[in-house]
């Protein structure tokens, strides 16, 4: 099962951005945001023009995974917590 971070990684890579979780790849995420938004507003016909909420969530997941990969961390979750599903 692909996570949000995995899906946005594939999408970024297919659009010629470097996304494979090293900290340096965050430059490409910033470039993506600059090219597809104008002062925080999605550019018409840009890749953020549709499904903005899910794409921003996925970019946040990518950022979190990049930090986790860099620092060697792991995620912990309570499988019984319905709010976390």
How would you sum up this structure, described in words?
By secondary structure, the protein is mostly helical. It is 49% helix and 5% strand. It has three helices and two strands. A two-stranded antiparallel ribbon has the order 1-2. α1 (4-14) crosses α3.
Distance between the termini: 15 Å
| Quaternary structure of the protein | single chain
Quantity of strands, as a count = 2
Low-confidence stretches: none
> In percent, how much strand structure appears in the residues?
under 5%
- Helical region count? 3
Defining traits:
85 residues, mainly alpha, two-stranded antiparallel ribbon, 5% strand, globular
Q: Quick gist of this model?
A:
The chain starts with a helix and ends in a 14-residue tail after the last helix. It contains 3 helices and 2 strands.
């Amino acid at each position: 099962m692909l996570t949000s971070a995995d899906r946005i990684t594939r999408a970024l890579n297919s659009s010629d951005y470097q996304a494979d979780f090293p900290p340096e790849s965050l430059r490409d995420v910033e470039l993506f945001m600059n090219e597809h938004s104008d002062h925080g507003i999605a550019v018409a016909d840009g890749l953020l023009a549709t499904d903005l909420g899910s794409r921003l969530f996925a970019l946040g997941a990518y950022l979190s995974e990049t930090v986790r990969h860099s620092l060697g961390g792991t995620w912990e979750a309570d499988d019984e917590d319905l709010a976390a599903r």
